[in-house]
């Protein structure tokens, strides 16, 4: 089943069902809206990917993933939005990125 998701300007993710926007709840209780150190690591581990594989799927250097996971840097802008969508529908995101 194909899910249609929309990222709202305020950072919320909604699913489009029959023309209506239905807010999605975080994949895990207590998950932050902005993925940080633990959230990025958790997303990667839930996808059963190494840092190298995760970086390749996202199209970023592996150092970027390491910096996010170690708390040296935080994902910003489009990267933060992409990680938020991955938290809700990882298979769809990776499939879309593979086609690009």
What does this structure look like?
This protein has 100 residues and is an alpha+beta fold. The protein has a domain at 35-99: 434 Repressor (Amino-terminal Domain), CATH 1.10.260. The protein has five helices and three strands, in the order βββααααα. It has helices spanning 37-46, 51-58, 62-70, 77-88, 90-99, and strands at residues 5-7, 13-17, 20-23. A three-stranded antiparallel β-sheet has the order 1-2-3.
CATH class category name of the domain at 35-99: Mainly Alpha
CATH topology label of the domain at 35-99:
434 Repressor (Amino-terminal Domain)
Element-level helix/strand string: EEEHHHHH
What is the subunit organization of this protein? single chain
Anisotropy-based shape = globular
Please identify, by name, the CATH architecture of the domain at 35-99. Orthogonal Bundle
The number of distinct β-strands equals: 3
Question: What proportion of the residues form beta strands (DSSP E)?
Answer: 5-15%
Task: State the helicity in percent bands.
Answer: 40-55%
Indicate the low-confidence ranges by residue numbers: 27-35
Q: Major sheet, described briefly?
A: 3 strands, antiparallel
Number of helices: 5
Rg result: 13 Å
Can you list the strand order of the major beta sheet? 1-2-3
Rounded mean pLDDT score: 83
How far from one another are the termini? Answer: 21 Å
Could you name the CATH homologous superfamily of the domain at 35-99?
A: lambda repressor-like DNA-binding domains
Helix vs. strand class: alpha+beta
